[in-house]
Amino acid sequence: MNKEMIRKTDNEKIVPTYSRYDMAADKGKGACCYDTDGKKYIDFTAGIGVNSLGFCDDAWIDAVTSQLKKLQHVSNLFYTEPQVKVAEALTKRTGLSKVFFGNSGAEANEAAIKTARKYGTTRKGENVNKIITLENSFHGRTMAAITATGQEHYHKYFTPFIGGFKYCKANDIEQLKSLADDEVCAVMMEMIQGEGGVMNLDMEFVKAAEEICAAKDILFIVDEVQTGIGRTGKLFAYEHFGVKPDIVTFAKGIGGGLPIGGAIMGEKCCDVLQPGDHGTTYGGNPVACAGACEVLSRLDDDFLTEVEKKGEYLRNRLMELPQVKSVSGMGLMLGVEIDGKEAAAAVKEALEGGLMILTAKNKVRMLPPLTITYDELDQGIEIFKKALM
Length: 389
Prior knowledge:
Elements: H1 3-13, E1 25-29, E2 32-35, E3 40-43, H2 46-49, H3 58-68, H4 81-94, E4 98-102, H5 105-123, E5 130-134, H6 143-148, E6 165-168, H7 173-179, E7 184-189, E8 192-193, E9 199-200, H8 203-216, E10 219-223, E11 247-250, E12 261-265, H9 286-298, H10 301-319, E13 324-330, E14 333-338, H11 343-353, E15 355-356, E16 358-360, E17 363-366, H12 374-387
Parallel strand pairs: 3-15, 5-6, 5-7, 7-10, 10-11
Antiparallel strand pairs: 1-2, 2-3, 4-12, 8-9, 11-12, 13-14, 14-17, 16-17
Helix pairs in contact: 3-9, 4-9, 10-12, 11-12
């Protein structure tokens, strides 16, 4: 099918929950994507942070296809080696205790929310079920996750919402203290608010949140769905802040392109959920876990240091452009504030020039594959430069 046929059928047969860009992707390798007409694009999106190793990484393909030839699915009623290997790697590298596996970031956050509420109600009483999240946050599109999301426009049309959430202004320590009353079971936050405009939290605020949670026996949950798995130059972004959460949620980049997510839980709450409390048919699927094993095996100290270096290089190149006012974020998760043009218009023009980028509110968002080369970064910058003119 050519692009016009694909677009026509898409418009007729697929529920329009996304406003698609004018490109029909056909194939890719590394940080390069090709459309159905054979046009090449430099990819600064990584499938919204999913393709951590880029398109069609050879070792990743080998790991996934080897598992696919053995066992594609068996359900969580049985033990599987790939799932155990991913859990072992994540707990070893975080110092946390156990992992719950799902398929997406929203599912990961739902698991964290259910864990927190059971922890609060069984430990302290049936009214200890409130969760504090931050204004401008994003935690997913399922009913609990969208309620946890502190952005009003996501709350239109879908009432009634799940109760029990409070919203704190990001970086407001005093408000957080006042909200953390005896009915609160958890505080949940992103270290960098991705969909909220790639906004970094303050170090002082994050440390204060950890201290408040510890003092009041409240679970400290960090949503690392977009920031995790090497995206910021650490395995997880909370490592930059010198804190240790009780629950870390993850998804996107860990599967390298296959759907997998979950929650890593510390000793305090790792046995809260018991058989029958929660579950998912596909969670921890052997093929997705085989991909995750390959991704995690690649993210050693040298690899992560290189991500930080690439991020700093990209940031410096961006700041050389006269239309760029500021650059937020960490590593290869950057938000670019531009002057003279709307972010959406810049993204459209960049795509026409052969660069795939994203928006995040009023900013251009860049999430290149972690394996992108410096030459590909330079190529992308040159296209972006022309798009800003």
